[in-house]
Design a protein that fits this description.
Length: 118
């Protein structure tokens, strides 16, 4: 059986978790009208990335592992679009946008490397 919480040792999971925390902190500043809109969408997408990495880690077959990593990659692209929209709507500052974009890029790079390992 896969070691419980072994996924937490993965650098990609750690960086994705950092991205989740960052998204939550920055979206907490969004207008209240966005609580169930873009804010909710962004937090769900970010959480989906880290959750799918963890779930993929637990899978036995390479096919299943890759399927969950593909979902994580898809959620990361979704988050990327939401970050761009948030900037255009001026819900986040240029500095916050650059911080999010850099962290998102780091997670994407690590996720693609991890995916390629299978």
């Amino acid at each position: 059986m896969t070691e419980s919480k072994g996924y937490q040792k993965l650098i990609v999971w750690q960086r994705a978790k950092e991205l989740v925390v960052l998204v939550y902190k920055l979206t907490s500043k969004f207008p209240k009208s966005e609580m169930f809109g873009l804010r909710s969408q962004m937090t769900r997408a970010a959480v989906s990335v880290v959750s799918n990495i963890a779930e993929g880690y637990s899978r036995k077959s390479t096919k299943d592992k890759k399927r969950f990593l593909e979902m994580a990659i898809g959620s990361l692209f979704e988050l990327e679009s939401d970050i761009v929209i948030s900037r255009e709507l001026e819900f986040i500052t240029l500095d916050d946008y650059e911080i999010l974009d850099k962290k998102k890029g780091e997670v994407g790079y690590l996720l693609n490397k991890y995916f390629s390992a299978f």
